[in-house]
Design a protein that fits this description.
Length: about 260
């Protein structure tokens, strides 16, 4: 399953920039809601572990999900995750690495159509791996940003682009808006230079540009104003103003200029 290999590669790319950090470096606050690098890794490790439990021990997964739902009645997700993932600094880095290095090869051998439980409806293991790659890439962005490191992107970003395309309707539904009948036509260039297209060609609603920047917008790691994407038409404009490829309540994209790579 290619998506599992892509999840592994995405995780390794993030781990590489953390390899030389000391424990004290993990308390740096990022530009995402004041999360520290510790918070980012705890979040990724918690949900990687949850995804793996949905495969290896569905009963335990359901039990932990029920515990999460009850806890959120009087606490925050951030507090719950940090309570469940006690490691910090380099110990946390090691625990997170150990799990993703095990999951990647093991999940790559699964039938992509196999179904597993999740917090919402169940999903295919291919979708589960795409979600794990997306989370790793999106939350990895705030780590690359705060450390002032430019990420070397790869064509595996296409998985996140597809997730963004598939959640076109969701971006409107989650805000109580009617879903437009037709999605804008996308013409996006992957890091290799290969061009991918989605939606019906020949229409006035269009989005053109770099696939990485489209992924940044739908994962809300950048405001559309901070990209060079060309957006034409009112539907395309509204979509890019509120795009959200992840589940949960409607989230407000970052303000223009608030998310950027710091000087290294």
């Amino acid at each position: 399953m290619e998506q599992a290999q892509d999840f592994l590669a995405e995780s390794e790319a993030l781990a590489a920039i953390l390899a030389d950090l000391e424990d004290k470096d993990f308390v740096q606050e990022t530009q995402f809601k004041g999360w520290t690098i510790n918070d980012v890794l705890a979040h990724l490790h918690f949900w990687n572990r949850a995804a793996d439990l949905s495969l290896t021990d569905p009963d335990k997964f359901k039990s932990e999900l029920d515990e999460l739902v009850k806890a959120l009645a009087g606490s925050s997700l951030r507090t719950f995750e940090n309570g469940k993932v006690r490691e910090r600094g380099r110990d946390l880095l090691a625990a997170w690495q150990e799990l993703f290095l095990d999951m990647g090869p093991r999940w790559s051998k699964l039938d992509p159509k196999m179904r597993v439980q999740w917090a919402g409806p169940d999903m295919s293991v291919r979708s589960s791996m795409t979600a794990r790659q997306m989370e790793t890439w999106a939350h990895g962005q705030e780590v690359f940003d705060v450390l002032g490191v430019e990420r070397k992107e790869a064509d595996r970003i296409r998985n996140i682009v597809v997730l963004g395309v598939n959640t076109f309707g969701w971006a409107f539904k989650v805000r109580g808006r009617d879903v437009p009948e037709t999605m804008p036509h996308l013409t996006l260039t992957l890091p290799s230079g290969f061009v991918v297209e989605y939606g019906e060609a020949g229409q006035a609603e269009r989005i053109t540009g770099q696939a990485v920047e489209f992924a940044q917008v739908v994962t809300q790691t950048r405001n559309i104003a901070d990209t060079s994407l060309t957006v034409e038409g009112p539907i395309a404009t509204e979509w890019m103003a509120h795009a959200q490829c992840f589940a949960g309540p409607p989230e407000t994209p970052p303000a223009p200029g608030s998310r950027f790579r710091k000087a290294g």
